[in-house]
């Protein structure tokens, strides 16, 4: 599903974010990427969706090179990748429903769908997505009226409405309390098991990784220092 071949990323100021990374991630895996702050977790995730360009190497998503893709081809590859961020990245002053419908934008070419009415089947999909994270009753609330955990579930619903095949979650629970953390991680895990959606989650704490992931990748200073099943991940970091 995802192949990362000899990938390095050096930032404009000379900082090395990633140093010759090689990884293959199969469909349906639930992978946790762990490491201390500055290890390169976020750089790796952002590289996969090409939120920034890499300096060296190539990344293949579903058999297609996202590194080489341009224009429409790049958009098509990105359609399969749903992003979840620490800070939720919802449109604050807009309804929950409309935020989830934003996952459908790109399936229609017109701007109308951003500001105007969506096709009925998209609205149905959005409600189904909200149901799957148990938050459909908030559909008409403003996104910024929700708690952090609820907002993160809306972000998950947006990815579901997008019908993404891959979820990239960059420290999705870093700003949540323990109870809410459990709810959000439970949702991600359940969706992974139900839909076989490939899930890659950056986590600061290895305990959470052990609890939810089937494979742990440890990064340090932009390099892979551990890659294996949870049972073999001891005190790596
Ligand atoms: P993590 O997500 O594990 O905390 P990052 O991927 O954010 O790590 O950072 C990896 C390295 O790249 C760090 O040394 C960080 O300071 C550096 N870095 C991240 N983003 C930038 C940037 N935009 N410009 C320069 N250096 C950056
Ligand atoms: P707005 O008030 O900006 O229209 P809403 O969150 O109420 O935002 O709805 C977003 C869009 O979803 C609507 O413009 C419409 O296209 C669609 N929509 C909302 N509710 C329904 C519904 N019950 N049936 C069909 N479409 C709906």
Folded structure, characterized:
A hairpin with a 5-residue loop joins strand 1 and strand 2 (16-25). The chain is α/β, with parallel strands linked by helices. The mean pLDDT is 93. The strands form two sheets. It has a six-stranded mixed β-sheet with strand order 6-7-8-3-9-10, sandwiched between helices. The protein has helices spanning 41-48, 71-79, 96-101, 112-115, 120-132, 148-161, 178-195, 206-212; strands spanning 2-10, 16-25, 30-34, 56-61, 64-65, 81-85, 166-170, 198-203, 215-220, 223-229. Bound molecules: adenosine-5'-diphosphate (ADP) (2 copies).
Search tags:
237 residues, MetN_ABC_transporter-like, 33% helix, single chain, 6-stranded mixed beta sheet, binds adenosine-5'-diphosphate, cell membrane, 4-stranded antiparallel beta sheet, ABC_transporter-like_ATP-bd
Give the structure's gist in a few sentences.
It comes from Fontibacillus phaseoli. The strands form two sheets. The chain has a six-stranded mixed β-sheet, with helices on both faces.
Major beta sheet, strand line-up: 6-7-8-3-9-10
Bound molecules: adenosine-5'-diphosphate
Q: How many extended strands?
A: 10
Mean pLDDT: 93
The radius of gyration over CA amounts to 18 Å
Strand content: 25-35%
Q: Kindly, what is the distance between the CA atoms of the first and last residues, rounded to a whole number of angstroms?
A: 25 Å
In the predicted model, the low-confidence regions spanning at least 5 consecutive residues are none
Count of individual helical segments: 8
Describe the biggest sheet?
A: 6 strands, mixed
Structure class: alpha/beta
Strand and helix order: EEEHEEHEHHHHEHEHEE
Helical content (DSSP H or I, runs of 4+): 25-40%
Task: Identify the quaternary structure here.
Answer: single chain
Global shape: globular
């Amino acid at each position: 599903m995802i192949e990362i071949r000899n990938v390095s990323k050096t930032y404009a100021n000379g900082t090395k974010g990633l140093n010759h990374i090689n990884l293959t991630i199969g469909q349906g895996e639930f992978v946790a990427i762990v490491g201390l702050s500055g290890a390169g977790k976020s750089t790796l995730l952002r590289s996969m969706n090409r939120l920034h360009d890499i300096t060296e190497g190539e990344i293949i998503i579903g058999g297609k090179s996202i590194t080489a893709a341009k224009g429409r081809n790049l958009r098509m590859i990105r359609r399969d990748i749903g992003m979840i961020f620490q800070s939720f990245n919802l449109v604050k002053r807009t309804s929950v429903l409309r935020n989830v419908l934003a996952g459908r934008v790109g399936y229609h070419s017109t701007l109308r769908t951003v500001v105007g009415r969506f096709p009925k089947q998209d609205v149905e999909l959005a409600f189904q997505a909200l149901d799957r994270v148990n938050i459909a009753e908030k559909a008409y609330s403003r996104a910024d009226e929700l708690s952090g955990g609820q907002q993160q579930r809306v972000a998950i619903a947006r990815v579901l409405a997008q019908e993404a095949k891959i979820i990239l979650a960059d420290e999705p629970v870093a700003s949540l309390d323990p109870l809410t953390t459990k709810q959000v991680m439970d949702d991600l895990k359940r969706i992974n098991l139900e839909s076989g959606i490939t899930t890659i989650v950056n986590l600061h704490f290895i305990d959470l990784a052990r609890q939810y992931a089937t494979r742990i990748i440890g990064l340090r200073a932009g390099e892979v220092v551990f890659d294996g099943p949870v049972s073999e991940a001891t005190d790596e970091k």
